[in-house]
Design a protein that fits this description.
The chain has one domain: 23S rRNA-intervening sequence (de novo design (two linked rop proteins), Up-down Bundle). It contains 5 helices and no strands. The chain has helices spanning 10-28, 30-33, 36-57, 62-88, 94-120. α4 runs antiparallel to α5 (94-120). The protein is elongated, with a radius of gyration of 16 Å.
Amino acid sequence: MKYNQFEDLPVWQQSRSLVRQIYSLIKENSDFRKDFSLVDQLKRAAYSIMLNIAEGFERGGNKEFANFINIAKGSAGEVRAILYILLDNDYIPKQKFEEVKNEAMAISTNLSNFRKYLLAHQDYKKLAVR
């Protein structure tokens, strides 16, 4: 499939959904909202996924794009780690933790697969994606 803009990428759309879920978690819990540094770190990690996918897409080629995908994957791991902090401090219920963690895991898996695809087609200058 040919993608002409990063907004068309399914993994970018999925990461956008995760950001909405994260912001919803924050809005739902007044105790959590008071933990300013943790809230800030969670938001930055979540939107870092989206931003790195977008930035990588706009770069010169698949090899460089794969590097940005790798950074996005790291941010997905950071989101999952922060979710454990939220669970362990009773900021979110177990069910909500599992729901958001599973979404972050799915994104991580999709990023990993997408990175493999990009690296297998690194000789192309965006032909494999666009």
